Amino acid sequence: MSSTTSQTEAVATQRGGFVKLSGIIIAVIGAIMFVGGASTWVLVQNQLSAENIVVAEDASFLAGDNVNGPFSAYAQAQIINEHALDASGGKTYAELDREDPVRAVVMNGSFLRASLFTSVLAFGVSAMAMGLGLVQVLGGVALHKLGRHEDL
Q1: Do residues 152 and 29 make contact, with C-beta atoms less than 8 angstroms apart?
Q2: Where are the domains of the chain?
Q3: 149 burial type by CB count under 10 A (0-12 exposed, 13-18 middle, 19+ buried)
Q4: How big, in percent rounded to 5, are the helix, strand and coil portions of the chain?
Q5: What stretch of H or E contains 133?
Q6: Count of other CB atoms within 10 angstroms of residue 59
Q7: Which of 7, 23, 26, 93 to pair with 65, CA 20 to 30 A apart?
């Protein structure tokens, strides 16, 4: 075996080892992202469920459903907005006079909507973290397998 062949094999082995290690690291980070996303989803879902909120019967969709996920939270936020606008004659909080007693009702509706939209956002970010984590796991496994073939 020539010196050049031996050096080429050594470089290939080093490169294969780096690719395998990179694959493992990427897959582990992806798994952590997936678990973090799933944990956040479950946490937000449990917190919403504990509030015992039910989508109002006059909501345009999911009426009567328990608020425990992104779609039911969105449906409830939408109907809260409709109720607040009905109570204020179509005016928003900023459009009402400071002394108008309805202003407090509209303000509470805005706070509730903001809280529900925050949970919708948390569900979305959780789903994105899980999706990206899964992609990283798959990419890491693929890299690891490629690194094994470099060693051959």
Answers
A1: no
A2: 3-151
A3: exposed
A4: 80, 0, 20
A5: helix 102-151
A6: 21
A7: 93
**Which residues are CB-neighbours of 34 under 8 A, at least 6 positions away?**
129, 130, 133, 134, 137
- Token pair for residue 139? 């990419």
What count of residues does the chain have?
152
10: which strand partners? Answer: none
pLDDT in tens, 62-118: 999 999 999 999 999 999 999 999 999 999 999 999 999 999 999 999 999 999 999
Locate 2 and state its tokens: 């020539």
- The maximal CA–CA distance of the chain, rounded, in angstroms, is 93
Mean pLDDT of the residues in the chain: 90
